[in-house]
Amino acid sequence: MSKFPPLKNDRLLRAVRGEPVDKVPVWIMRQAGRYLPEFRESRSKNDFFTICRTPSLACEVTLQPIDRYDGLLDASIIFSDILVVPQAMGMVVEMLPKEGPHFPSPLTNPADIAKLKSEVDVSAELGYVFDAITLTREKLGGRVPLFGFAGAPWTLFSYMIEGGGSKTFAKSKAWLFKWPKESEELLKRITDVVVDFLVGQAKAGAQILQVFDSNAGELSPSDYRQFILPHTLSIPTRVNTALRSQNLGHVPIVAFPRNAHGALKEFASSDYDAISIDFGVEPEVARSLLPGKTLQGNIDPSVLYGSKDYIRERVQALVAQFGTKKWIANLGHGVYPDHDPEHVRYFLEAIRDFTQTA
Ligand SMILES: Cc1c2[nH]c(c1CCC(=O)O)Cc1[nH]c(c(CCC(=O)O)c1C)Cc1[nH]c(c(CCC(=O)O)c1C)Cc1[nH]c(c(C)c1CCC(=O)O)C2
């Protein structure tokens, strides 16, 4: 018996399993964020990572879009960041206003790997995320399922080496090509922490998990396949095995290999339950590359700058492309800070209006 309130809206979990739904489930990447005035209000009082590390605050912010769009969203996602994993491994990460994440001491060469913790106790380092998940599951009262998430090995590797965002990813790619053995070791260490972190989130109450490989498209398909893919694909296999060995039920996992179009087909036979696609790939192309998989996505967030009528037109076209089965509607990347929350509502309402079957 679960210790949590029973789930009242299981559309998203049904879609992942390929079961029929009365309406296509929808949520929005970065749905708790700066486009919401209530988030900016919470942020004006607290530093970004303080919110992440304080379960009551993380829970409050996670629930903001669920409360605002009452009944229109079919999932929540725990408020946190992919960069809590490098922090758990011993790195300092700051969130600079306007600039985004900043590592004062990024990894500059393989000798720096020794500065990372050799063993990471995820309960000790990231227990605050687990507590936030458990609290949020309670406060959600079964309204919608709760996503846990983590960054994928390559995206975290690139942040840890670049020290923040990058135009060329020259430093992190140089590692792969100059120091393949050490890069492999670092990727393996990141993957180990990510696996433990996802298992811990599932145990804490996350009902579905997403692995964000936001920088996947920065590598050529063959380099992604050679250096990165084995790590990315090992994650769901290892998480499933760990949960099974602890007699816990299956928790579905979504991969978001953003812009990795040349490597997309490799996810077809993977243990990921669903694949989130960016807006650079046509739904029908994704369907043919990933037969049988539930897809998530993929409207360009910028479409939300359009009028209500325009958003509805684009959603109608999107529904014609995806159909209503094995699809979780979403944007192709996160919502932008200057989006109008009312336009987000138009998107959610349009998905409901054009996909409702019952
Ligand atoms: C690459 C990445 C990061 N973080 C994340 C990714 C993968 C998804 C993607 O590609 O967008 C994932 C993420 N970050 C955040 C969430 C929360 C849950 C949700 O989706 O609502 C999630 C799932 C909160 C956040 N993470 C961040 C904010 C805004 C920072 C602030 O409030 O000051 C939020 C709400 C900061 C952040 N964090 C990161 C960047 C590049 C930035 C700066 C860019 C920006 O400012 O939007 C790293």
Description:
The protein is 46% helix and 11% strand. With 358 residues, the chain is an alpha/beta fold. Strand 2 and strand 3 form a beta hairpin. The chain has a single domain, classed as TIM Barrel (Alpha-Beta Barrel). The structure holds coproporphyrinogen III. Coproporphyrinogen III (CP3) binds next to strand 3.
Indicate the structural class: alpha/beta
Shape assignment: globular
The CATH class is identified as: Alpha Beta
- What portion of residues is helical? 40-55%
Do you know the CATH topology?
TIM Barrel
Task: Summarize model confidence as the mean pLDDT.
Answer: 97
- Give the CATH architecture: Alpha-Beta Barrel
- What gyration radius follows from the Cα positions, in whole Å? 19 Å
Number of domains: 1
Note the gap between the termini. 30 Å
Bound molecules: coproporphyrinogen III
**Could you describe the largest sheet, including whether it forms a barrel?**
7 strands, parallel
Q: Give the topology string: H per helix, E per strand.
A: HHHHEHEEHEHHHEHEEHEHEH
**Low-confidence blocks of residues:** none
Structure annotation, total helices: 13
Number of strands: 9
Taken as a percent bin, the fraction of beta residues is 5-15%
Widest sheet, order of strands:
1-4-5-6-7-8-9
Family: Belongs to the uroporphyrinogen decarboxylase family.
Pathway: Porphyrin-containing compound metabolism; protoporphyrin-IX biosynthesis; coproporphyrinogen-III from 5-aminolevulinate: step 4/4
Subcellular location: Cytoplasm
GO molecular function, one term: uroporphyrinogen decarboxylase activity
